[in-house]
Amino acid sequence: MLCMKPNITQARLKQLLHYDPDTGKFKRLTKWGSQQIGDEPGCKSQFKYRYIGVDGKGYTAYRLAWLYVYGEFPLGDIDHINRDPTDDRIVNLRLVSHSVNLHNTPHRNAKSGHKGVYKTKENRWQARIRINYKIHNLGTFATIEEAASARKLAEKMLVSA
Question: What domains are defined for the chain?
């Protein structure tokens, strides 16, 4: 998912906020409204991502962290490697395609407990993966562990490709 280029620059961001890459937290460098210098800015969304207002616009903290460290606003997707949306440490963030980002999301509806693993009518476990809107069957397996392992291997191959 591409987003429009923001009006904020790294220099402007560093005038207003300090980012600690080891903790992933921002602190205010200026007083703003009821917030004091040193306060953590922003608020959490219903999806647990932190949003921070800067010069009248709202940004996700992880995109601001990327800008703060690398000097450019990310135009692609930013993935939280450990799947924790509250962990904005720079070592936990990576620039990825939208397709790869979707593969790192938990699957809420998988009855097996593993994304891309389903029970067949023949009482076997099928593994599959979706790449660029196309489903690829990875085979059927006797155990759920084998199917989950095949799915994870396919994900690793996708990320390294």
Answer: 10-96 (3.90.75.20), 106-160 (3.30.730.10)
